[in-house]
Amino acid sequence: MTPEIEVDNVSVRFSSKHATTSALRDVTFEVAPKGFVSIVGPSGCGKSTLLKLIAGLLRPSAGELRLRGTPVTSTHREIGFVFQKAALLEWRTVRRNITIQGEMRDLPKREVATAADELMELTGLTDFADAMPHELSGGMQQRVAVCRALLHKPSVLLMDEPFGALDALTREAMNVELRHVWRQTGTTIVLVTHSVAEAVYLSDRVVVLTARPGRVAEVLDIDLPVHRDYSDTMRSDEFGKKTTTLRALLGSSHAGNHD
């Protein structure tokens, strides 16, 4: 089976008139179709840069990225992106913040309306369709951002620390919501996170990067049940083993080289 995403020996260097910085070095991993992969690593190790490369927003200095076997050379319709901040338009309702994706892509209005209704029902936003962003909690705003990114039915959803600014309880609820959305839509998801628990609970694989320049320290398979009750998962021996392993890998990953 052809991987949904292939990151093949990718390196990134940023140059200025004063210095050249190596952000990523020889990064290689794959993401299976309908897979859920989290990327973790120390701050500044190139996690967000890696998402931008997959999205076609940046080009690698060396190596290649492929989407379903085709080299990524520019932005792609098959990719949705959720950023750290929801970035909703304050003068548009929840529904119209979601449907703006369809307007920008010039999709058929009936198709857009149907997709928006389905996504709002899936994420519990139906009763808030006519609400304005300032009337929503942070978690609900991020739900809108997820719906907006999924409106055009992309095969891949990239998420850059989308729940980092939320309080602990809301973040837990959003983890459960996101896994539900992933299971229902079958979208391949790549998530950048600093949370060990979040990475283990959500993912089927976790890519651990070293300190800058980011390299793959380990790709950790998460062998938890497909159907994961949040509380039961957190109390399970397997969850404890995986989080312990991941924390140990993150500890050793700080020993990366610096250019």
Can you walk me through this structure?
The protein is 37% helix and 24% strand. By secondary structure, it is of the alpha/beta class. A six-stranded mixed sheet has the order 6-7-8-3-9-10, sandwiched between helices. It has a four-stranded antiparallel sheet with strand order 2-1-4-5, covered by helices on one side. The longest helix is centred in the last third of the chain and has 18 residues. The protein is globular and about 50 Å long. The C terminus is likely disordered.
Can I get a quick summary?
The protein is 37% helix and 24% strand. It is of the alpha/beta class. The strands form two sheets. Strands 6-7-8-3-9-10 form a six-stranded mixed beta sheet, sandwiched between helices. It has a four-stranded antiparallel beta sheet with strand order 2-1-4-5, with helices on one face.
Keywords:
259 residues; alpha/beta; 4-stranded antiparallel sheet; 10 strands; 24% strand
Helix content: 25-40%
Protein structure class: alpha/beta
- What's the tally of helices? 8
Q: Catalogue the unreliable spans.
A: 255-259
Overall average residue pLDDT: 92
Strand composition percent? 15-25%
Q: How is the quaternary structure best described?
A: single chain
Largest sheet: 6 strands, mixed
Quick one: how many beta strands?
10
Distance between the termini: 38 Å
Task: Give, in spatial order, the strands making up the sheet with the most strands.
Answer: 6-7-8-3-9-10
Rg (CA only): 18 Å
Secondary-structure element string: EEEHEEEHHHEHEHEEHH
Molecular shape: globular
Please give the structural blueprint.
Layout: E1 5-15, E2 20-31, E3 36-40, H1 47-55, E4 62-67, E5 70-71, E6 79-82, H2 94-105, H3 109-122, H4 138-150, E7 156-160, H5 168-185, E8 188-192, H6 196-202, E9 205-209, E10 216-221, H7 230-235, H8 237-253
Parallel strand pairs: 3-8, 3-9, 6-7, 7-8
Antiparallel strand pairs: 1-2, 1-4, 4-5, 9-10
